[in-house]
Amino acid sequence: MKIQLRFLIGLLAFSLIIVSCSSKKKAIGNEDDIIVLADSSLYYEVEPELLQVFEKLIYTPQPERLFNLQRKDYVELNTIKTRKNIIILGTLTDSGYVSQYIRKSLDSNVTRLIENNQEYVINKYNVWADGQLVMYLVSPTVEDLKKNILSGHEELLYSFRNVSDKRLFAKLYSPRYEKIETEAKLFHDYGWYIYIPKHFELGKNSAEDNFVWLRGGRKTPVEKWVFIHWIDNANPDYLNKDSIIAIRDRTTKKFFRTTDNKEFVEISNEFSEPMFREVNFNSRYSIMTQGFWKFSDKSGGGPFTSYSFLDEKTGRFYMLDGSIFAPKYYKKELIQQVDVLLNSFRTSDELSDEKKADLLDNYESDDKK
Fold first, then answer.
1. How does pLDDT run across 109-159, given as a tens digit for each residue?
2. Using CA atoms, how far apart are residues 352 and 368, in angstroms rounded to an integer?
3. Terminus-to-terminus CA distance in the chain, angstroms?
4. Which residues pair with 216 in a beta bridge?
5. Burial of residue 340 (number of CB atoms within 10 Å: 0-12, 13-18, 19+)
């Protein structure tokens, strides 16, 4: 039923005149800024709920907010149309200009869905600029709006994170700066693909240990580490918290060591214990883990994120992991960048024949080098 409602909304939600994509400029603004078009009286009534959801503090380990909200009045509508992230906030009963604007734009079928509290969020993409998300948050009353914001916080955050990831990947991805030869070798040898930017190098490649380490920014103030580890002939028992912690610690203890080989990387519980979440990773069940790592002598550390899943066709357990080592730098955007790279991972069965052929065309065996 929810899918049908979304489809109906997509067809009927708003009567907006949209110019063709070719004439739209790229949306501008910081990835974590959200412009909220709302009448002042309504905004300040629901501000606590909005701040609780969108400006939640996260620790990387420095405290950073998920997003930064900036309220604008209706008269400023034309000045915000170029921004990346926009929320248009209103109710069916409020008399403010923004709520009136929303009601005039709503299709009668969508209005009925909102009146019955069957829907409250409507996402429109590329309305005034390319790469833009305009989210309409609408409920019958202020109290309904407050409840919907809190109860639907995961969906609201996912919408902005998802479009931000897409913009970021479009920014990161470039055939000109892609390490296609390394991608081709890994695909040929192991049967999987991951996008590798030019500034990443192959730090470790061990067929014996089923381990690949991609290292970005080596010997710079900002290092990004991505590793892919897999276990053949695995079973679903690996997909639990204790196993994931044990596998990651065992892997980093062996491969992430200081130059003198005395210290190693392990999961840290100093700031908080790792958080585990069941997610859909490229249409397969996966456990997403987010937490902090440290050197065993506590001389440094940073955030990490990983995905663990079982590929049923090959019987492989995969752990895809990204971490950041950037002392004194804010890391929220950096960890998002490695997360985007992790999400480019595909097994051979998930690649098109054209992509596989392209990779193999770029493969050069060690014997030919």
1. 999 999 999 999 999 999 999 999 999 999 999 999 999 999 999 999 999
2. 27
3. 57
4. 200, 224
5. buried
53-78, pLDDT tens digit by residue?
999 998 888 899 999 999 999 999 99
Q: Which residues of the chain have pLDDT under 70?
A: 1-22, 366-369
Which residues, in sequence order, are bridge partners of residue 75?
A: none
Give the homologous superfamily in CATH for domain 175-368.
Mog1/PsbP, alpha/beta/alpha sandwich (3.40.1000.10)
User: What is the structure's pLDDT at 369?
Assistant: 54
Q: List own/partner pairs for 49-58 with CB under 8 A and 24 or more apart.
A: 49/145, 49/146, 49/149, 49/150, 50/149, 52/150, 52/153, 53/149, 53/150, 53/153, 53/156, 53/157, 54/156, 54/157, 58/332
What's the topology of domain 2-172? Chitobiase; domain 2 (3.30.379)
Nearest to 284 by CA among 236, 335, 321: 236
Domain parsing of the chain, residue ranges: 2-172, 175-368
